[in-house]
Specification:
By secondary structure, this protein is α+β, with helices and mostly antiparallel strands. It is 34% helix and 24% strand. It contains four helices and six strands, in the order E-H-E-E-H-E-H-E-E-H.
Length: 140
Amino acid sequence: MRRLVSMSDQAVLDTAAAIEAHLAQTIEPWERRRHGVRFVLCDRANRVCADCPVDDLPVAADPADCAHAVSLFASALAGSDADGALLVALTRPGAGTVTDADRVWFHAAHAVCARLGVRLIGVHLLTPTRQRPILLDDAL
């Protein structure tokens, strides 16, 4: 299911609690059991402009494919005067521990956003039983 956020419903992702709440409200339980990624595009004030889910990803993450996917959404923000930001949310079945595939997405998001000059709000993992940010220590 694709969701666009109306201007009156814009969440502001300015705290960890706001990010967690937005992801919990917009990602359905059934989505947490699928291999997917959600790109949340925000404006300069971290107000959500669009939630863009990509579903049915392969279990193994190819670094080039991940970087390409991130660049499609980050480029939209980089080419605007909005000084936007990107939040990346990974969904998959299984435990809430960070996997090698999660690490690939984490590094791709950071590399692409740095290269394009787009603020990366963070990379989060959502499984059927857990929701958490992926931190640098997790990705090493």
